[in-house]
Specification:
This protein has 128 residues and is mainly beta. It has strands at residues 4-7, 10-13, 18-24, 33-39, 45-51, 58-60, 68-73, 78-83, 92-99, 117-118, 122-127. The strands form 2 sheets. Strands 2, 4, 5, 6, 9, 10 and 11 form a 7-stranded mixed β-sheet that branches. Strands 1-3-8-7 form a 4-stranded antiparallel β-sheet, with no helix packed on it. A hairpin with a 6-residue loop joins strand 5 (45-51) and strand 6 (58-60). 34% of the residues are buried.
């Protein structure tokens, strides 16, 4: 099992940037695909971005393409989400998640129930 701890959330003005980090425990981090999801008030937990175990493939939801960037450092057991040009609609609790049975061929899952491990979340608030 792996434990995930997010950090880096906060309050930022529209157009600003934040970098979220997710630190993982355990020795198997490098074998997991990782994802970032977010839950805005009144919404389900929505997919934001994902990255393969090697970092060689990434995917994003359309609304963040060109603004957000996911990356990972397997030596540090950490996955990051760089968020630029933030908008008020990006306001949400952001969660990192681990896919312990990643599909082959670099395929990335985008639904929350397919991820086995979750962090506690970090609040991101973007003011207009």
């Amino acid at each position: 099992q792996v434990q995930l701890v997010e950090s880096g959330g906060g309050l930022v003005q529209a157009g600003g940037s934040l970098r979220l980090s997710c630190a993982a425990s355990g020795r198997t981090f490098s074998t997991y695909n990782m994802g970032w999801f977010r839950r805005a008030p009144g919404r389900e937990r929505d997919f934001v971005a994902a990255i393969t175990s090697s970092g060689g493939n990434t995917d994003y939801t359309d609304s963040v393409k060109g603004r957000f960037s996911i990356s990972r450092d397997n030596a540090k057991n950490t996955v990051y989400l760089q968020m630029n040009s933030l908008k008020p609609e990006d306001t949400a609790v952001y969660y990192c998640a681990a896919d312990r049975n990643p599909p082959r061929y670099g395929i990335l899952r985008k639904t929350a129930y397919e991820y086995a491990y979750w962090g506690q979340g970090t609040q991101v608030t973007v003011s207009s």
